[in-house]
Every structure is written in C-alpha cells, then in structure tokens.
Amino acid sequence: GNSKAINQDGTIITANRLSYDKLNNIIEATGNVEYLDKRRNIKFYSNNITYFKNIEKIFSSGNSKIISKKEIVLSSNEMSYDKNSNIVEASGNIKFLDKTKNYEIYSDKATYLKNEEKVFTEGNSKAINQDGTIITANRL
Length: 140
Hints:
This protein is 0% helix and 71% strand. It is built from no helices and eleven strands. Strands 1, 2, 3, 4, 5, 6, 7, 8, 9, 10 and 11 form an eleven-stranded antiparallel β-sheet that branches. A hairpin with a 4-residue loop joins strand 7 (72-82) and strand 8. The termini are far apart. The model has no long low-confidence stretch (mean pLDDT 88).
C-alpha cells in the first residue's frame, strides 16, 4: 500500500512504507519513494530515503532521481539534498540532463547548486552538448 507524509511546509512524501521517529524527527521511506516540494519546484524519486527534519536534509539510496523545473533531471545511485542551501550532492552512475539547453553530463560524483543552476563534477566526467561535442575530464 501507499503511505503518505505531509509536512507543514507543503512537502509530501509517498512510499510503500514510512516510519517516523518522533523523538529525533526523522522520516524513513522505502519502496517507490516520491518526495514532492512544490515551493522549491523539486521532485525526488528513490528506492529509499531518510529525511532528517531538524537539519532539513534528505539522504537517498538506490535509483535516485531529482527533477527540477521539469527540464533538469539528475539521477544517480545515492544523493543528499540540503533543503536550506538548496544543494544536491550525488554519487555513483550520475547522469545530469538539461532538456532546455540540450546537454548531458555523466560522472562518478556531482554537486548541483540549484539556486545558481550550476553543476560541478569529479571523477570520470563527460559532457555532451546538442551539436555532439564531447568533453571528458576529471572535473567539469
């Protein structure tokens, strides 16, 4: 069955299973997890997430994907999202796709600064733009 948690700030977490640690203010969600933050215009999908409400951080593992403004998609094995700074850190099989500007980035590790719409990568990085230009580097 689908479980749902709704936060006071309007964020919604749905998953197959939810657990809430009231003492530490932590939500754990497993199975087909969807995190929706309408105010920040972010959707987050994963197999598992842990949301530390006191510090406003979300950690995910297993097929994690974040969609920002419908045209920017970042997918990876693991992610962390800091709601206060609006920064996403991702690692493992990263694919960053910007549908508006028509480019893709692949890497081992990436940091996405959502407020500034900037991406920084580390390790085996490759960028491909719309005209087919490919850039490979350790950092992009």
